[in-house]
Amino acid sequence: MTMHSGRGFAAINYPIGMNLGGDPSQALVHSNPDGKFMVTLSSIDLGQGMKSVTRQIAAEALGIPVEDVYVDTADSDTGPHCMGSFASRGTHRVGNAVIAAATEARGVMLDAAAEELEVNPEDLETDGRGNIHVKGAPSRSITSAEACGAAQFKQGKTVSGRGIFLIPTSDVNPETGEMTPVSCFAHAALVVDIEVDDETGEVLVKDMQSAYEVGRALNPKLVEQQLIGGAWMGMSHALYETTEPHYPERDNGPVDFNEYLMPGPGNVVPHHISVLERPAPDAPFGGKGPGEMCANPVLPAMANAVYNAVGVRVDELPITPEKILRGIKANGGARPQGRPGQH
Amino acid sequence: MSKVPVQLTLNGSDRSVFVDPGQNLLDVLRRSLGDLTPKYGCGQGTCGCCTVMIDGETRLSCLTLAESVDGCSVETVAGIGEGAQLHELQTAFMEHFAAQCGFCTTGMLMSAKHLLDNNPSPTRDDVVEAISGNICRCTGYEPIINAILDVAARRGSGRHTS
Ligand code: FES
Ligand code: FES
Fold first, then answer.
1. Rounded to a whole number, what is the largest CA-CA distance in chain B?
2. Which CATH architecture has domain B4-79?
């Protein structure tokens, strides 16, 4: 038995949102009389942080503290329509809808404040700490809670806003094939180091190094969390997981966790992540979101690493020991490819 | 079939409940006793979401006959903190972002608590072993392992206050 080390690299562009557009998301924002704002959505927080990030976005757009914003989401009986949490679209699509709704609500809040302060709404600004004051004259101020209270109890105004963000469907030009498939891309590059056992075909993942470009990381800790977990899923898809091991035959697939193979806490791989920020112009405060991309580069990088280690090109996922061993056998033995500069 | 009376201590309180013969403890905790912290993931002992402690030992409540806990002490995540005061493991899970969807979290916390109750200075391998029956689909485990090791380290260095 010999262990062969291999290194694989992959770089990807990942489109944000549905490939040909036509995927709207909506948001409603309203204030309660105490100046706390409610953001109503139908977008699901799967654990990726949708509620946290839409709360931040709403607070920023309203100009009030994040503590004063609540997000009520995932109830399609009460929330406005959303296409859903998929295609890495949440931060971008929903975030833009939230900005639109919050901007409209902010306008009403400033109108109400202007009426109370007897000034022009254009002359007002928010300090992000719950105060609205006249530009250049911070002493002429009113709290956002007072402004919202006055709107609802004196002036008879709802402090509310509606938002929708839609990338229209892009039809393919039948003559040229031209289309506008997406609004923006996120990017990633990943290097994985592995060892392959040429007797058992088993892959030992040693280390991952990656760089992810996600637009602005609106909540850096959530981004990091999602990248760590997502890359682990990528490793799992690359080496372990499948519901149809004999595809296209659907027989003998796993039916429960006893048979469905996935890595456990003993298979954690050291992973060094760099997050690069290139704010996207059409994204909410520049944030595109890591989404599905956090898993994707691991798969091609792993396939390349296996080839580098033993010279076997596995083009079906997952890359199981059986497939690797069959490849080694067909080649008449392991054929380590080496690396530039290595002998 | 007639119901069976079961008396148990749930997180320190005496509770009595009628259960169906053959009913599992997870079902009784969630439906009859109103403790929703243990989760139903698989119902067949493979995911660990339903982990509770029975007389100080971790058990999968989906595979435990409710009748069998008559006279036992059952602990769940609902009882590990005190009122609004979170358990230090809960705090560490928050600080390390060790929960995303949160579905595995209560089971993880019970496995982690059992480990630290019995082994105050676990190695990383001990932690891995302790949570190896708990599946997490979101975090990649690393933040969970780090959170548990962090609590052990803090306790060891005397910075533990509660
Ligand atoms: S629900 Fe008990 S182990 Fe999955
Ligand atoms: S946080 Fe989602 S399963 Fe662990």
1. 55
2. Roll (3.10)
